[in-house]
Amino acid sequence: MSTVTGTTLTREQLDELGREFDVIRQRVIADLGEDDAAYIRGIVKKQQQFEVAGRAMFYLPPLWPLAVAALSVSKILENMEIGHNVMHGQYDWMGDPKLNSRIYDWDNVCPGEQWKYSHNYIHHTFTNVLGKDRDIGYGILRMDEDQKWHPYYLGNPLYAFLLMVFFEWGVAMHDLEVENIVAGKRKLEENKALHAGIMRKVRRQALKDYLLFPALTGPLFPLTLAGNATANLIRNVWAFNIIFCGHFPAGVATFTEEECLDVEGPNGREESRGHWYYRQLLGSANITGSKLFHIMSGNLSHQIEHHLFPDIPARRYPEIAVEVREICERYDLAYNTGSLSTQLFSVARKIVRLALPNRTTSPEPAPVAETPVAA
Amino acid sequence: MSLVTNLLRSRVAAALASPHGVDHYLEQVNPMWAAHDVRARVVAVRRETETAGACVATLTLQPTSTWRGHRAGQYVQVGVELPGSARRLTRCFSISSAASLPGEQITLTVRAHEEGQVSKFLVHEARPGQMLHLSQADGDFTLHESAATPTNNRLVFITGGSGITPAMSIVRTLLRDGYDGRANRKVTFLHFARGPEDQIYADELAEIAAADNHVDVHLRHGEARFSEFELRRLVPQFRDTDTWVCGPSGLVDLVREAYGDSDRLRVEFFKQPSTATGTAEGDVSFTRSGESAANTGASLLEQAEALGLEPEFGCRMGICFSCTSRKTDGTVRNILTGEESSLPDQDIRICVSAPVGDCSVDL
Questions:
Q1: Which of B39, B80, B320, B322 best probes binding to A when mutated, by most A CB atoms within 10 angstroms?
Q2: Inter-CA distances, B280 with A34, A88, A121, B229, B351, Å
Q3: Domains of chain B, with CATH numbers?
Q4: I need a labelling partner for A138 at 20 to 30 A (CA). Which of A8, B70, B204, B360 fits?
Q5: ipTM greater than 0.85
Q6: Cβ contacts (< 8 Å) between B339 and chain A: which residues?
Q7: Tens digits of residue pLDDT in B124-169
Q8: In the A/B pair of chains, how many CB contacts fall below 8 A?
Q9: Could you tell me if residue A205 is inside a domain?
């Protein structure tokens, strides 16, 4: 038996792994139905109730903190459990235009169209492949030892903090590939078409959160504006933290393009389906928590299951996780999971450590994994 | 339009409600409230015929105030969420009631097809109180002149089976709006049905035929087929007469042949789900570009590219939805799950969909 480059699995094991995940996919897709539809509609209804409650409470200044809280919950639910998942096409099977990936555009300054390209296609296809997946450090951070160090990265913690505060803006700017323009790999003209889309979404948010709703509260305009800005900030901080736990905790694997091309295809070497699953599995990390926590994270707390099955409704990830863990045990593969504080601490440590050049004497700390890691 | 409606339709309301539509909020409060969407509540369901496997029912619908009305002969898209699956399916149905004004009730007369999930649902499971999704009325299979300003033009309607509905809407409109024998405009209504027990609107057609209104009704049952000879006997100058034909493709083909290159013929037919052959046979057509070729069994994306088309794509493995395109006709098999689907006008991911038999994609 031959071990495929860079993996702990043999060719046969990789192919069998691919088949096992395909079986799970088929079974869950065949089972989609009324419960899934009722779930997402229920979440939308809850989100709309929080939205209305939040907007309304701004009329009573003593309730300002509650208004901000309700609006933050609405914005978090909308971006994560609704926007992210609907725009992944998870509910396209329902045929409801209100929940269709081609129609829905989230409450975020990043245009859905552009996000679907950089996220659904680039990030989800080339997950954690160095030089291909632009979500590794988002072009501004050093999040992997194989990214060459440069004095610029001394600012790693500062950049990460700024990205957290302005996260939705970071997501919008992400598609402009500013780092590639600086490096001369991308022309400024290529961004012209994207500017219009971003400006449209910026105007939409500014109009809604910083003009119309504040104006509707009359003399309370400044308070409402401040509240809306705070809600956007809270959503930014929350989304950043959840998302950074998805691929950056210690122990998450990155890959080179060469090691992914494990089979001979009609047009040269390509990646097998088994290896694609294998890469998604080892390139993602989960966060443990309560049911409410999973909902508020858009079920991205099940990043591993999300990356294996990005187009399956996220509410199915907890049930799928049971099988994924069982598969991991059988194949002796790491299943990276931990509490929010564990994963966040691990990410923060990486951000700080990688601000400095690699130290050859101190290897990366042991991965955070519940199952024993393959030797 | 009221001030409230204007406000709800304003750009300000849209900006405040975003990312959801205003309708998404209104619907949560009352399903009959809408600013843009059209929905309808089922008011009544009446059985027209009881033939096993081909029951016909007439549904009376109360649309939301957003309904802009319809011209006689137009159709409407009806969307239903089938019980159990939660999947919304949308099909076109001709409106059978006379022309409607904004907000007015309409009727649909639907035959439950063996293969038609929506038609079966509407005939057998629709109950008063249920909500349906509607589109605005559409279609050019209509009477262009109004009954109020009649001309001397003769009119001919040739229909088969449930294809009678749009013609019925036109005739009902004419009679409702004061058309009668004095207008001296002769109407010939030639209809083919499988048998008397399958005849929709039998009583009403008998009344129309008996009344003094210059509407001649000719019903043909059983083995009777359309013949040019018979039509010539009824309407000698039929090629120079405004004619509406609606029915199964066999009837439509015969009538088309009889009319040759006459521009007086208007044709209406609806798509039925096709049946799968289970093999890589048939032809694949890309309708927008006009390209077509024999089906190779490969994914639609690969077959399109082989023909020189450049459809948008991303992951090429069915996860990113970049390549989603509309299949207008035919059956496709999902390469990943093996699931086959024969629904017309369906959005599919062409990178993981392979045609099974004839297939048309809007590319």
A1: B320
A2: 33, 30, 29, 42, 16
A3: 1-30 (no CATH), 37-134 (2.40.30.10), 155-268 (3.40.50.80), 283-361 (3.10.20.30)
A4: A8
A5: yes
A6: 29-30
A7: 999 999 999 999 999 889 987 665 555 667 899 999 988 999 999 9
A8: 102
A9: yes
